[in-house]
Every structure is written in C-alpha cells, then in structure tokens.
C-alpha cells in the first residue's frame, strides 16, 4: 500500500508549495496560539487558495473556541479538521467537515474504545504522549501498542524523522504518516531536503 504523507506545521507559501512538489498528500496548519508553528486563519486560507488539486489542507485545533474553527472553514471548502485536544465526538462533528481525531498514547489509553467513540472520524491519528504538551513532542511511542484491528485508517505521528520513517511504515503499515519538527531547519520553517527525503522514505516504506 502506498503510504500517504502529511507535512504539518506549514507557516508560509514557499514551504507549502515545496512540500507539494516533493509529493506531500496533505499539509497541516496549526491554529493553536501556544505553538511556534501557529498561523492565522487569514494567512492559512491565503496559502490554501494557491494549492493545486488533490492536496488536502488539514486544520489542527486544540480545544479551540468554535468561532476560530468557523473562521478557518469559512475561508475554503477544502479543509479537513484535526482535533488534538479533549474534544468530544459531538464537538468534532458539529462543523459538518471531515475530521481526524488525534489520540495521545497515554499508558492507559484504550485505542479500540477511543476509535469507537469517534466513529464518524475519517481517521485516527496516534501521537506520543508528554504531559502538558498536546503534540509536536518530537518523541516516538511504542508502536507495538497499536492494535492490529483498529477500525479506522491510522495516521502515525510522533517523533518521525528522515532516519526512522521507512522503518515506521514497514513496521506499522499506517494509512499515512504525519511529520512536523522532523523536517524543519527551525521551528516553523521546513528544510526542503528533509521534506523530500522524508516523503521518499515514507513512500518506499
């Protein structure tokens, strides 16, 4: 299976278009103001307006106010939403947009139960758990904890890099992989060479 790739934490048009040129299937935009990769709805929608077809823009929220989500989706019909906080299934569904639910791999998490709760999600994204940090930890988790019978397409995140992505894809066989810090030259700025190498590594598996 061809593993899809999402390059997350896009903050500028140059990085977005370079990632698309390198073969990215989706681009992530972070609407969480505590993140160094934060972008405003206006800035993000200006970038999305210049993306070619067949590239999915993904809007990442962490316990966001509904007015912020609505401001983002009002700017484009192309958005898929990614909820990375403590949102309920009802909160995720209220916008009528396709969405992913991110689940951080806490020691006691029941992935099958969580996937069942979010039955309307188009995919489940698994990320490393670090207390007080909703994502972008740069850390991996034990991939053996992922059940083989997860009832949703799996997006694997958490500490992925050019060096480990091929192993991750061959070991986990996820629907997609998601990277942000692992392909940056500094926070919020992508490294074109790393982006290309990461995508090539993921697609080779």
TrEMBL record:
Gene Ontology terms for molecular function: phosphoribosylanthranilate isomerase activity
Keywords: Amino-acid biosynthesis, Aromatic amino acid biosynthesis, Isomerase, Tryptophan biosynthesis
EC nos: 5.3.1.24
Gene Ontology biological-process annotations: L-tryptophan biosynthetic process
Positions of the N-(5'phosphoribosyl) anthranilate isomerase (PRAI) domain: 5-200
InterPro entries noted in UniProt: Aldolase_TIM, PRAI_dom, RibuloseP-bd_barrel, TrpF_fam
Top class in the EC scheme: isomerase
Reaction it catalyzes: N-(5-phospho-beta-D-ribosyl)anthranilate = 1-(2-carboxyphenylamino)-1-deoxy-D-ribulose 5-phosphate
Pathway: Amino-acid biosynthesis; L-tryptophan biosynthesis; L-tryptophan from chorismate: step 3/5
Family that this chain belongs to: Belongs to the TrpF family.
Record NCBIfam families: PRK01222.1-4
Entry protein name: N-(5'-phosphoribosyl)anthranilate isomerase
Protein source organism: Marinomonas aquimarina
Lineage of source species: Bacteria, Pseudomonadati, Pseudomonadota, Gammaproteobacteria, Oceanospirillales
């Amino acid at each position: 299976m061809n593993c899809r790739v999402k390059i997350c934490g896009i903050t500028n048009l140059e990085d977005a278009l370079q990632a698309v040129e390198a073969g990215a299937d989706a681009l992530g935009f972070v609407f969480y103001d505590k993140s160094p990769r934060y972008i405003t709805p206006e800035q993000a929608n200006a970038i999305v307006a210049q993306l070619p077809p067949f590239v999915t823009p993904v809007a990442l929220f962490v316990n966001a106010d509904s007015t912020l989500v609505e401001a983002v989706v009002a700017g484009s019909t192309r958005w898929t939403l990614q909820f990375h906080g403590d949102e309920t299934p009802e909160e995720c569904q209220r916008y009528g947009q396709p969405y992913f639910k991110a689940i951080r791999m806490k020691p006691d998490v029941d992935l099958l139960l969580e996937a069942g709760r979010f039955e309307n999600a188009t995919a489940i994204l698994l990320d490393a758990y670090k207390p007080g940090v909703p994502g972008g930890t740069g850390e991996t988790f034990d991939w053996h904890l992922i059940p083989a019978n997860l009832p949703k397409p799996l997006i694997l995140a958490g500490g992925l890099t050019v060096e480990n992505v091929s192993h991750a894809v061959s070991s986990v066989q996820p629907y997609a992989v998601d990277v942000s810090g692992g392909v940056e030259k500094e926070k919020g700025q992508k490294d074109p060479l790393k982006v290309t190498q990461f995508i090539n590594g993921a697609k080779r598996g």
